[in-house]
Each structure stands twice: as structure tokens, then as C-alpha cells.
């Protein structure tokens, strides 16, 4: 049940028998030769594919997040942590006020993880509410599926290169990029990060066969759906 394809009365009818929903979190940031919206595209599609068979509403993906380290790449948009924390809290409040009590956040961007405590604080104020924060790509089964294909997998590499994140007419390089040491990135500003990573890929092949990617996707969808269906008590 996509909120973008529903009206308010249909949501009200749904809430008479269920109080679950899904909120995808994305970002707008460089992904080398892939779309700047990779994280939003993936979070939204994972959420829709997982929740669709269950009829659980999926809200539009939040397209902006926390990505100050990529601000030297044009097209990147980053919010302040205080702004983003307040935004997530306001969204959760709105969902609660309109009747939702069990909320699964499907996060598509690692930089957004600092807002997880916001979810914990929000639940402290609303004892009957539940909020699960799910980094879909590094959930145990999904990450194991990624590692089984190639242990060298990173930001903007093959592991984010799906048919729905590619840009038509803009092929990715055929070679494997040398891995950038994360420790060298931790104390750099945005210009320093760009100087280290070049085109934006942190390291690894740029693309893998679609059969491998679709297998990883199926694992990720099943793992996400299990969270929706699991025990919320």
C-alpha cells in the first residue's frame, strides 16, 4: 500500500485493523557513476517490495539525510544533525498522531544512523509505540549475501549497482578500483574526502552480474519483511 497511491479514507480504513507502517530514509549524495538518489531509490524499493504483499502502508522516502563528507561533490545535499533529528521526530509524531503505533524505518544511508537515538527517545515518550530502525544493506542475512559475492564491497561500488540505480547511457568502469582505507577518511573535510576517493567509489568492482544482484535483493526483501511480520510485543 503506497501512500502516494492512496487517499486518507483508505488509510483510515486500514488503521481499523492494523497500525503498522514503513518509513524509508534516503539521501541525496554522490554515488560515483550511479544516481545521486541511490539511497532513496533503494530504501523506497526495499520498503515497497517487502510491505507490498502485506498491504502495509509505505510512506514516501525522505530524500535528504546526513552527508557532510560528500559536500565537495556537486548535487549532494546534507542536513545538520539537529535539523535531521527534528525532522525524523516530527514525522514519527505525525504518524503516531494519525494512528500508527508500529513503525519500521528502512534506512538506505549509513550516514543517517546517528538519528537512531531519536527513535529510542521517541518510544520513551510513547510507551505503547514501537519503532524499528533497519539498515537494510547491512542486516545479517543481506550482508552475508553481499560478502558471498565479493568481500570488497563499499559505497558506490557494485553492491549499490542495481538495474534501478543505474543511469542510462552512462556505463560504469570495467575495472576493480583499489580500496580506500576508511581510517584515512575519518579526519578529512569534504575536499579531503574527494581528493582521496576520486570518482566517489570507495573501492571494489563497479558492477556485478544482475543475477547476483537480484539474489541479494531477494534476501534483503525477505529480511525486511520478516521485521514487519515479527513479534512487536
From TrEMBL:
Keywords: Hydrolase, Metal-binding, Zinc. One of its GO terms (molecular function) is hydrolase activity, acting on carbon-nitrogen (but not peptide) bonds, in linear amides. Its cofactor is Zn(2+). It comes from the Bacteria. SUPFAM superfamilies: Creatininase. One of its GO terms (biological process) is riboflavin biosynthetic process. Belongs to the creatininase superfamily. This is Creatinine amidohydrolase. It comes from Pseudorhodobacter antarcticus.
